[in-house]
Design goal:
0% of the residues lie in helices and 63% in strands. It is mostly beta strands and 182 residues long. The chain has one domain. Strands 1, 2, 3, 4, 5, 6, 7, 8 and 9 form a 9-stranded antiparallel beta sheet that branches. A hairpin with a 2-residue loop joins strand 6 and strand 7. The two termini are 26 Å apart.
Length: 182
């Protein structure tokens, strides 16, 4: 979700808001890379097998000039390392996010953050080659399972009168590797 399939997939989702308190969304995504020949063939890389389900649940709340939303979302995708047939690697992402906004007349301040955990199961590898993340492991061995945690945060102040926007983004991540059966 966070980078791997960004700008490489398109989807269809349906959403609902229940009692102005619970937001829910479900959908599916398919590969739709830009700038590559169609139909996708054996030269394609990172193609989703079938469709990847997506879900989101959030609890938004508004009081006075404040808005706060706490939510979770996720996606599970089986991806062909190369081509459009054969064995796939599995990626399962689960995220928790929070967004806060405060209005000050014509100005506003926004603070948001996301925590993402991605589980990668490398069963297909790269057709006899080490997968792209093998170099991140100290001894360079292939690891069939890999978990990654990424955290993103951003603060934005917007002054409508002067048309200024100050953004302070940040991101950091922690990776852990384990072999199958550990």
């Amino acid at each position: 979700m966070d980078g791997t399939l960004a700008q490489q997939a398109a989807g269809l989702t349906a959403y609902t808001m229940w009692n102005d308190r619970v937001y829910g969304e479900v959908g599916v995504y398919r590969s739709a890379p830009l700038g590559v020949p169609r139909p996708l063939d054996s030269t394609a890389t990172g193609v989703i097998s079938g469709a990847a389900p997506y879900w989101r649940v959030a609890l938004p709340n508004v009081w006075g000039q404040n808005y706060l939303s706490i939510g979770t979302y996720g996606m599970a995708a089986s991806v062909y390392p190369t081509g459009v047939a054969g064995a796939t690697n599995r990626f399962t992402d689960v995220a928790v996010d929070v967004a806060y906004m405060r209005s000050f007349g014509s100005n506003s301040f926004t603070l948001d953050g996301t925590w993402i955990h991605e589980k990668q199961t490398w069963t297909a590898g790269g057709r006899g080659q080490r997968h792209e993340y093998a170099s991140h492991i100290p001894d360079g061995r292939d690891v069939p399972h890999r978990s990654t945690i990424r955290v993103h945060h951003r603060a934005v102040r917007y002054d409508r009168l002067e048309g200024q926007c100050a953004v302070r983004p940040g991101a950091y991540g922690r990776e852990s590797h384990r072999q199958s059966g550990q």
